[in-house]
Amino acid sequence: MRSDGRFRILVLTLTPNVAAGAFPKGNGNVDSLSSGPVAEVLKRLHQEAEAADARLAQTYASEATSHEQIITQFIDAETRDLEGLYHGLAGNFLNVSPEFGRFLYMCARGCKAQRIVEFGSSMGISAIYLAAALRDMGGGRLIGTEFEPGKVERARANAAAAGLADLVEFRVGDARETLRPGVGGDIDMVMLDGAFTLYLPILKLLEPHLKPGAIIIGENAFAEAGGYIDYVRDSENGYLSLPLSFNPGRGNELTVRTKGPRRLRVEISVEGASL
Hints:
Strands 3-2-1-4-5-7-6 form a 7-stranded mixed sheet, with helices on both faces. Strands 8-9 form a two-stranded antiparallel sheet. Strand 1 (115-119), helix 4 (125-136) and strand 2 form a beta-alpha-beta unit. By secondary structure, it is of the alpha/beta class. Helices cover 38% and strands 16% of the residues. The chain has one domain: Vaccinia Virus protein VP39 (Rossmann fold), CATH 3.40.50.150. The N and C termini lie far apart (74 Å).
């Protein structure tokens, strides 16, 4: 109370005590995408990606008469020589857009993900969005896969620059093999952004570990590629799925798992009794 008898309102502004350049751990009240080291690294990487992939985009645009033809050409190239195709793209980012990255971050936070699996990490841009969500919620684990060793090296460096290296494990090689040993527990979220024709095999490989309500996001999930879209849009398979409206033409699909993890039931007969 002031000396004249009237009340004085004191407003306190609380500012986290974080040293410049440090990477604060979140408790659910942090947004790493708006400012700070994560935002700065992402801005730089998106600029690098635009420059690196500009010629590739021009090449496909000049060789095809329509977007559908570009997709068909890419799927045909995967079918003929998947390994050779992606070796040839070792210098390209093939990354998500900033808008799609923010969507990934929001999905991870919305489902309170603790364990995320990413198929096709490339240079690590989408991994940074996902790992930033884990950091801002207090921690978790992102398991990323990438066929090209050189890309994994850069992805690790980029994750480290964003202060997220301790949350991310990148597995090098064919994801059908690198994910087969398991991911250490049940999965809250899956990001599919690798070879288009492998989305369905990768999903089926992870399916026994998906939690009820797990989110699966497919970028470049085209109906022409391997049956993935037909599978997740069939509710009998335990999913609800629909296309996303932003970044039109990219084949973005949002899917939710409606069934729980499949557990192996073992029956042992002892003197005629089933255990």
